[in-house]
Design brief:
The protein has 31 helices and four strands. It is mainly α.
């Protein structure tokens, strides 16, 4: 792309690619060959031009606004605005305003701009210089090498004598000031004026030496150093993001990991996270504010003093690096406490900070520190709302970013949903008014997590996973058992039958007991809702629930395992053909028991050891007082107990024996079995 700035009439050329092409000043030669092109500094006087230059400038600025500038093009335009020429001041100002770099700005260009500042016959006008200073402020965060600003610090400081440049000069100095720049003669210079910009810069100096610069020196009105043009910054970010995407690079430019972050450029006076400041430093101490490079950081890693407020870790890449390499448990705990307090204030309406500000801050923190748990904890405060909207706008996006095919990530998401549901239930239970969509949202959440839990028990079938899943469903059981919640609306969603059966047949007595406890909680809740709360309560899940309730009782107590003949029984969802084959196999073993009894308390591979241990304990008690001629060899059945009593062994009925097993399980922390059976089996409940 080329744009003519000479007497050649209408501008020629059109945009090609993503950035402005080489901008050349052309002579009126008809062939437009490279040999006839003139340098930009030779732009003609206005009276010598055959046409106005204004349309060409407008086209140029439009292209730079749309596509940004590559380094070579940016360099030519910097020459155009810094070297004396005959372009009018309005055109120069328009060009400066649209100098959007698509990539990093080289140190040479920055030095060139700084070099044109000040008084002199060949210097640009003070108005143009002020515009260039403003431009330096807006691009300093994308400088390729920021040390060029530090090297030019004395030059920039001397600009404070010029009133027309003072505001922007103070702003730029505030951004680049380091401890070594704070010197007595500069402090004295800043104290001699009453300009708000000087006072603002002096306050920056005070961050480094609060014991020297006292309150009286900064009592006057001070500049806040907000970003000069937030819309310009947004456009620059968009141009750079588009350019980076086209280069198949990262979608966002990274923060400098080896300089403390100063958020004054953000333009937000209510920036939520404090900046890094280290007070009470001495000449011999090393602070984060003094680190300028990776070499300096590595060299002083063990000597760097921590800043005043460690919550600054959320917004400062350098502090994040420090605490990753020198872990401070207290620092991370303080950050978590600050976030929790902030979130509570936000929900209570006591904070004027925008939620988007803290979320953007957390985004950068998570990228730098992999703080997934922190974000998940914050999202547990998601308020009750229509579940389809929450699923689309939050939960599905969260799962896409978190789930990576491992059981660890799945458990993290499950823990998140369990905590979220807990907060919802607390909010729901404490509300005196009926919450719209509350029951639908809770039921939708449980139904959504059902799929996750089914996946988990297949990908990681161990006790730890089963424990996490059962923790969640014990939480959901309150939706069915709390009369106050039921008065607000029915939100019941029972665990899937497949999940219950899988965990019931797990090789862990504690897991089986907890499965029974969860099922018992649901049964108690249903009964409370129907009988006590006087609620017209007909959950659609009752038939499914009664199915696995009956199957569990058939296995453990009624010695009808895998049977589907009773009302509601589903035979544990095992195909009848397989049950028939298993029955034939057990019969051929001639072990004295049928398939229907092999999952009872006596024969169950999970509870058989506890059952015989219970009987041994009882036999020892009887033997101590009365003596026994014989002990049971096990496993215990109704028939063997009767025979045992006749032969001088322990004299106990079948029901007494089974009650003893249940009591034995209770003493060993597995009371879920007894709880479920006692509220389901009529004879056991009456006994």
């Amino acid at each position: 792309m080329s744009v003519s700035l000479n007497t050649g009439g209408e501008p020629s050329g059109e945009a090609q690619g993503h950035a402005l092409g080489r901008t050349q000043a052309r002579s009126s030669s008809a062939d437009n060959s490279p040999e006839t092109q003139e340098p930009l500094s030779d732009v003609l006087r206005a009276k010598q031009r055959g046409a106005s230059v204004k349309p060409s400038v407008e086209q140029l600025t439009s292209l730079t606004y749309d596509h940004g500038l590559l380094p070579a093009d940016l360099g030519e335009l910097i020459d155009l605005v810094t070297i004396p020429n005959f372009l009018d001041q309005a055109s120069l100002a328009a060009i400066i305003k649209n100098l959007y770099p698509a990539t990093s700005v080289s140190g040479d260009l920055i030095i060139k701009v700084i070099g044109c500042l000040g008084h002199g016959k060949l210097k640009p006008s003070l108005t143009i210089q002020a515009a260039l200073l403003k431009w330096l402020i807006m691009i300093q965060h994308v400088a390729e090498d920021r040390t060029c600003f530090l090297q030019a610090y004395p030059v920039l400081f001397n600009l404070l004598d010029t009133a027309a440049l003072r505001t922007y000069a103070c702003h730029l100095l505030a951004l680049i000031t380091r401890r070594r720049h704070v010197r007595p003669h500069r402090i004295q210079t800043l104290q001699t004026g009453s300009d708000p910009s000087l006072t603002g810069l002096l306050r920056v100096y005070k961050d480094y030496y609060p014991e020297i610069i006292v309150g009286d020196a900064i009592r006057g009105k001070a500049s806040a150093f907000n970003h000069p043009d937030s819309q310009w910054r947004e456009r620059l970010d968009e141009i750079r993001r588009t350019h980076a995407q086209r280069r198949a690079s990262r979608s966002e430019m990274p923060l400098d990991a080896f300089r403390v972050a100063r958020h004054r450029l953000k333009g937000a006076s209510n920036w939520p996270v404090p900046e890094v400041h280290t007070s009470h430093a001495t000449e011999d101490s090393i602070t984060l504010e003094e680190i300028e490079s990776v070499d300096s950081f590595v060299k002083n890693l063990e000597k760097i003093e921590l800043p005043n407020q460690l919550i600054a870790i959320l917004g400062d890449p350098l502090l994040q690096k420090l605490l990753l390499l020198r872990p401070e448990a207290e620092g991370h705990l303080r950050a978590c406490n600050w976030l929790e307090s902030y979130t509570q204030d936000l929900m209570a309406g006591d904070s004027d900070i925008r939620l988007v500000d803290i979320l953007l801050t957390l985004k950068s923190y998570v990228i730098a520190t992999k703080g997934r748990e922190l974000v998940l904890e914050i999202l547990t405060y998601t308020p009750l709302a229509a579940f389809p909207e929450l699923l689309t706008n939050i939960f599905q996006l969260l799962e896409q970013k978190t789930l990576d095919g491992t059981s660890h990530s799945q458990i993290q998401i499950l823990d998140f949903f369990a905590s979220l549901l807990r907060r919802w239930i607390v909010h729901w239970a404490s509300s005196d008014t009926k919450l719209s969509q509350a029951s639908e949202s809770a039921a939708g959440l449980v139904a959504h997590v059902n799929t996750l839990c089914l996946t988990l028990i297949q990908t990681s079938p161990d006790m730890s996973t089963y424990g996490k899943v059962l923790d969640f469903y014990y939480q959901t059981s309150s939706l069915a058992s709390d009369a106050h919640l039921l008065a607000h609306g029915q939100a019941t969603a029972v665990p899937p039958a497949t999940l219950i059966y899988n965990m019931f047949f797990a090789a862990s007595p504690l897991t089986v007991s907890r499965v029974c406890a969860v099922v018992a909680e649901y049964k108690v809740g249903f009964q409370v809702a129907i009988d006590v709360a006087d609620i017209n309560y007909t959950p659609k899940h009752i038939p499914e629930f009664n199915g696995f309730l009956m199957d569990i009782c058939n296995c453990l107590w009624r010695q009808r395992a895998l049977s589907d003949e009773d009302p509601n029984a589903k035979g544990c969802m095992i195909p009848r053909s397989l049950v028939k084959d298993l029955s034939s196999y057990v019969t051929n073993l001639s072990m004295g028991g049928s398939l229907a009894s092999l999952l009872s308390l006596s024969y169950s591979p999970v509870f058989s050891l506890f059952a015989i241990s219970s009987l041994r304990e009882l036999e020892e008690q009887v033997e101590e007082h009365e003596g026994l001629d014989i002990k049971h060899a096990g496993p215990v059945t109704k028939a063997t107990l009767r025979t045992l009593g006749d032969r001088g062994g322990i004299n106990a009925s079948w029901d007494e024996y089974r009650r003893g097993v249940l009591n034995y399980l209770n003493k060993h922390g597995m009371d879920g079995v007894e709880h479920l059976l006692s509220i389901t089996i009529g004879t056991l409940r009456r006994g």
